[in-house]
Fold:
Amino acid sequence: MRQKFDLRKGRQMFDEKSIAPGLAELGYLRLKKRTFKASWSSADVEHFLFLSLHSGGHYFTCDFGIRNPPAERFALECLKLYGGPFFQTARFEPPRYRCSMRFSLGRLAGWGFRSSLTISDMSEVALADKVKSDVRDHLLPAVRSILAPAVLFSLLIKDVEPCRWLGVSGALRSAIIVYLGRRMGIETRELESMLQPHLRDIIGGVQRGVAPSFFLSEVLREAN
Structure:
């Protein structure tokens, strides 16, 4: 009988070493604790996996991240400048690991409660097999071809699975879109028109009292 997780000891019993070999076979190599980066990433578009535990280690989640490094830096600077005073002093992850566009593997693969797996019901081997198979069968077909800025732009400007606007910062996402779009030669006025339907999404990503139209206009100005 395969041993299941001992939740009496909580998080300490979760060992990502059981998951790492399967992810490595798919090209995701461990970058730091519970963070993996795809070896098949391009210089322009990098791909990540982020593992997390919740509720005292009862639930396991996995997010996938997609990043264009200069667009990520631009978006964060815009948030600090125009997102409200809170963001001027807020602490963010180091640049090497920061990836604001993170989406749920569990949502894509149809996991259970809150797009998570209940690890008390699984052995370590079963969990590792489940994560590997869902990355291979669900995630890679959706993201493996996203290696160019133009393809990333096309993905982020839409609001479709597996990368819905809901669940990520609309402020950061809009800034990333603006950065990528301007470098593709898209005019400022056209980008503004494309992002008008997402002003409500921007509201949740800026400090209360900051108008989303103000944030977007400043981002567009910064990108010129």
Q: What stands out?
A: The longest strand covers residues 46-54.
